[in-house]
């Protein structure tokens, strides 16, 4: 063998290029198409398996609520005295994990006595959700709210979402033992507070984000008007302020700028029905932003100052603000603690 023949035999083989025209290409192409079809069919079957039960549930299951559309004004801008801050985060927690939903705070003493049974009908309706009360200084008159004759306390979220208007403000005379309905057709009447002069009573109408005023003595006795409307949140309890005004606790706000879920749903009752067909109250509460807001109102209802805890990191689900000895004590309908905030710090 010559040297030239040896070099020709040792020449490396050139790689072969497989093109669409080669015999194996159609197999690869068909395999890829087959995999794609399998994926699409699997995805479609999965979508159908999830969608059909969901549609069936929406059609067949009954909703526990029958909401009607409600209209709200655009929430007030969080500017000026309403500008967000973190002042509530300076509060200290008390009795953590030793309490369950300490909603209200009061100084009490003496014996406990039943004054009025919830089984006693008041103008044809039994009391189902007795909520808050305020008492005259002489102890004769007690003003209290019955938030609903349909829903009970454990159903508070259903009451808010349905917008039921069967709440009442009542007056109980401890001498005559008579009960009067001062105001009815209220949507979740909640906190109630006498004025310092005891000439009117304030009642928080939580679902409507406002506070009503009912005159109980003087020339305007029997009359009623709006004390504060279109609040930046949904008011709970009302308590006196040492400045002559009132403290109002709110565990849910109506952010502006921002998106208020409850405002959005208020005009879309069909979405509310669907939500509560599929989810429990406890599940829905997990999607409610934990933004705590405390407002101090003047004696005329103007916003005097605001204390915030965005995301409820320290003071969560604030339902009441009780002022005592230079401090604010913050109650909560869900948190397992009280909070105490020094007024000098804010």
Automatic annotation (TrEMBL):
<keyword id="KW-1133">Transmembrane helix</keyword>
<dbReference type="Pfam" id="PF20067">
    <property type="entry name" value="SSL_N"/>
</dbReference>
<keyword id="KW-0325">Glycoprotein</keyword>
<feature type="domain" description="Strictosidine synthase conserved region">
    <location>
        <begin position="131"/>
        <end position="218"/>
    </location>
</feature>
<dbReference type="InterPro" id="IPR011042">
    <property type="entry name" value="6-blade_b-propeller_TolB-like"/>
</dbReference>
<comment type="similarity">
    <text>Belongs to the strictosidine synthase family.</text>
</comment>
<keyword id="KW-0812">Transmembrane</keyword>
<keyword id="KW-0472">Membrane</keyword>
<dbReference type="Pfam" id="PF03088">
    <property type="entry name" value="Str_synth"/>
</dbReference>
<dbReference type="GO" id="GO:0016020">
    <property type="term" value="C:membrane"/>
</dbReference>
<feature type="transmembrane region" description="Helical">
    <location>
        <begin position="38"/>
        <end position="61"/>
    </location>
</feature>
<protein>
    <recommendedName>
        <fullName>Adipocyte plasma membrane-associated protein</fullName>
    </recommendedName>
</protein>
<feature type="region of interest" description="Disordered">
    <location>
        <begin position="1"/>
        <end position="32"/>
    </location>
</feature>
<dbReference type="InterPro" id="IPR018119">
    <property type="entry name" value="Strictosidine_synth_cons-reg"/>
</dbReference>
């Amino acid at each position: 063998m010559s040297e030239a023949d040896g070099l020709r035999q040792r020449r490396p083989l050139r790689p072969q290029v497989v093109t669409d025209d080669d015999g194996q290409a159609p197999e690869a192409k068909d395999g890829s198409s087959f995999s794609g079809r399998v994926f699409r069919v699997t995805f479609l079957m999965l979508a159908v398996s999830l969608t059909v039960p969901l549609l069936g549930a929406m059609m067949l299951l009954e909703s526990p609520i029958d909401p009607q559309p409600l209209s709200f004004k655009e929430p007030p801008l969080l500017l000026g005295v309403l500008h967000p801050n973190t002042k509530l985060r300076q509060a200290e927690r008390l009795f953590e994990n030793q309490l369950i939903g300490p909603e209200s705070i009061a100084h009490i003493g003496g014996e406990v006595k039943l004054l009025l049974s919830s089984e006693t009908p008041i103008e044809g309706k039994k009391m189902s959700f007795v909520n808050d009360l305020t008492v005259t200084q002489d102890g004769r008159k007690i003003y209290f709210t019955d938030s609903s004759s349909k829903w009970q306390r454990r159903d508070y979220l259903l009451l808010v979402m349905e917008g039921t208007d069967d709440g009442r403000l009542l007056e109980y005379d401890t001498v005559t033992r008579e009960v009067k309905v001062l105001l009815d057709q209220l949507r979740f009447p909640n906190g109630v507070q006498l004025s310092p002069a005891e000439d009117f009573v304030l009642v928080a109408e939580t679902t409507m984000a406002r506070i009503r005023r009912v005159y109980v003595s003087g020339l305007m006795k029997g009359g009623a008007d709006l004390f504060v409307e279109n609040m930046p949140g949904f008011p709970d309890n009302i308590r006196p302020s040492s400045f002559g005004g009132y403290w109002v606790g709110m565990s849910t706000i109506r952010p502006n700028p921002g998106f208020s879920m409850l405002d959005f749903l208020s005009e879309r009752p069909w979405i509310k029905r669907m939500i509560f067909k599929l989810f429990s109250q406890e599940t829905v509460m997990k999607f409610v932003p934990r933004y705590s807001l405390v407002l101090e109102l003047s004696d005329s209802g103007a916003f005097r100052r605001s204390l915030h805890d965005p995301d409820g990191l320290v003071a969560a689900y604030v339902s009441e603000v009780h002022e005592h000895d230079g401090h604010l004590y913050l109650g909560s309908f869900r948190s397992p603690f009280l909070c105490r905030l020094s007024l000098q710090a804010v």
